[in-house]
Structures are given as C-alpha cells and as structure tokens.
Amino acid sequence: MALTSKKNARPWLWVSAAVGLCSALLWQGGAWKPMERAAYNTLVRSQHLPIFPQRTWDDRIAVIAIDEKSIAEYGRFPWERSYYIDLLANLSFAPPAAIGFDVIFSEPSPHDELLAEEMFLSGNVAIAQAIRKDLEPIEVLPAFTAAARLGHIVARPDSDSIIREGISYIGDFPSLSIAMLELYKDAIDTTLTAPDNALETVNVQLPTTAGQGEEKLHNLNWKQPTSEFQTYSFSDVVEGRLDPDVFANKLVLVGITASGFDPLQTPFELTPPSSAVYLHGVMLDNFLTNSFCGDRQLG
User: Fold this and answer.
1) Whole-angstrom distance, CA of residue 107 vs CA of residue 45
2) I need a surface site. Which of 36, 182, 258, 297 has the fewest CB within 10 A?
C-alpha cells in the first residue's frame, strides 16, 4: 500500500480549507441561492413527469373562482357583498367543512351586517386579513371579526418572483389555510358521522405559532400545475348551476382568478401566472397530506 507523506498531503489540506471557506462565504452571501432555486424547480417539475407516480392535489380541496365568466355576469370587480351572501346561502344546502375567503373586506358597505350574519350562521367561515410591513394586522371591520375566523394572506416571492415558501404563522397570527384547517378539524370533532375522506384529518399536525415578529415558514410542494385543483365558477355556484353536494364536507376557497388580479408565479406557471388563491390551496394540500418539501415543515 502506498503511503502519502505529510508534506505531500499539506497542499490538499490547504485546498480543502480554501474550498470550505469559499463555500461558506458564498453561502453567507447568498451566492448559492440561484442554484438552490434552480434545483428546487427541477425537483418539483420532475415529479410531474410520466415516469413517476402521478401526484395530485387532495380532493378535499375546492376553489370557487371569481373568474372572467363571473365578472362578465356580475360586473366589474370588486362586487357588492350581496353576491357573497348569496354564495353562502347556496353552499348551506350541503355545507362545506370550511370556507375561506381570499378577499379583503376592509371598507364598510351597506350589506356588511347581513353578510356577517350569514357567516355566523354558517359557522365555518374564515376571511383574509391584510398584514402591514411591520407585521401587525390591519384591523378588520368589527361585524366580521365576531362572525368568522381571520387568517393572513401574506406571500413572500423569491427574487425570481416564484413562491417557494408558505407562511403558516406571523407571530401568533395564523394564515388563511391554518384558520381553515382549524375549522375543518372542529367540524370533524363535532360530527358524529364524519365523511370517509375526512377521518384521517383528525390526525393532521398543525404547526405551533411563531415567535413575536417572526414567521413560521414551510417549503411548498407544488405537485402539479394549480389548474389541476377542482375549480368552479363563482357565478355557477350562485346561480344554482352546480349540484351543492360538490362542496359537502370540503375545504372551499373563494378568490379571484381573473387575469390581471392577484397573480402568483409557481414552478409550473410563470407566463401567464397562476392566481394567489391557489397558494392557500397548496398549503392546505401539503398540511393534509404531510407533504411539504425538505426540513421546514412543522415545529
């Protein structure tokens, strides 16, 4: 066996030390970030190739889309809140387990009391709350705070505009997806006969809150394009063109998908982008199936 002298080994030690130091400096300076992001995109997209088992979004999630079709029927968005009252009334025939409005109700309107009453009667509604740059929530109209749960809708895109991380908590304030999952678990716990596809949800582990001024982050698993989520036109639901049973016991998101509103770039959808309401859908899916990517899952 050939032996390497200490003298000959020293150059390699210096090279190793130099490589390690350079790597540390590059990491600290963020130079590895573009490579990390490229690797993430490749990993996520490769899962959708035919050679791998098909990965789909959880079928307990549905999206009611404020789309071009609905805007053509009801006029320019934002709408009068009477449309949301009609939506909740129609959904009550076969109640979802949770309904999440990715809509900001910040300005008062003549229909606020009636909408709040409908939310209260439904007992399964969460609504979006905006957060300021200092991470403090913007006050929601009092009529709604007593009638629905609140959840933030903050998103943090990377420098290339793609969303790779979801935020479950800002301090002790939950995201819209967490607020919906809490409603979902409550619905199962208080129902004598839970639907078959809901039984496993009892064991879904939700994260603890973040520290004051901190964010709880999760690496998102984009299983496929967001267009593969079960999505239904808002106007079709309100006008009774769908069987209400479609939404029974499900987690239902309501948000705008019309072009030009609230865009969201994903590893699958860059140009044209997707819509931000689907970010909450991905969070719901990843929690329900415990399928976040990497280490930043729970804690």
Assistant:
1) 40
2) 36
